[in-house]
Design brief:
single chain; alpha/beta; five-stranded parallel sheet
Length: about 140
């Protein structure tokens, strides 16, 4: 069995979009855990390790920005990628201010999604020399 390229937690309330994201990322070799409820995403993120959180902006109960703020309360390192139909600059700015590192507007093609996922996961794995020095001194 091949080792996955990374684990992704996808929070998307639209079943068709959720299934498409899962299909694209799984075919590329990622392990994808999907949920339609932001509350469930928070519970999963607290108990499992993920390499990336993929979130929609418009969901029932919690928006993507509210979900990201909740995730950032206990996880400041795992990158967050918004994949949303909200295309206004204000939406993108709010996502970044909530703690997201990336933002794709639906419908992005599969290649764009894969490229952004790989970029964010790769960037999160880079250790800054100052972090190395701090961890060596500890």
């Amino acid at each position: 069995m091949q080792t996955p390229k990374g684990r992704i937690l996808c929070t998307e309330d639209d079943v068709d979009t959720r299934e498409l994201i899962d299909l694209i990322l799984t075919q590329y070799g990622f392990e994808v855990v999907c949920t339609q409820h932001p509350d469930h995403a928070i519970a999963l993120a607290k108990t499992q390790l993920f390499d990336l959180y993929l979130v929609d902006n418009w969901m029932p109960r919690l928006s993507g920005t509210e979900l990201t703020k909740s995730l950032r309360e206990f996880d400041t390192k795992t990158p967050v990628l918004f994949y949303s139909g909200a295309a206004y600059e204000a939406d993108k700015k709010a996502a970044h201010l909530s703690g997201a590192q990336g933002y794709l507007v639906k419908p992005a093609d599969g290649d764009q999604l894969i490229e952004e996922v790989i970029r964010l996961i790769s960037e999160s794995k880079v250790v800054i020399p100052a972090e190395i020095a701090l961890s060596a001194a500890a």
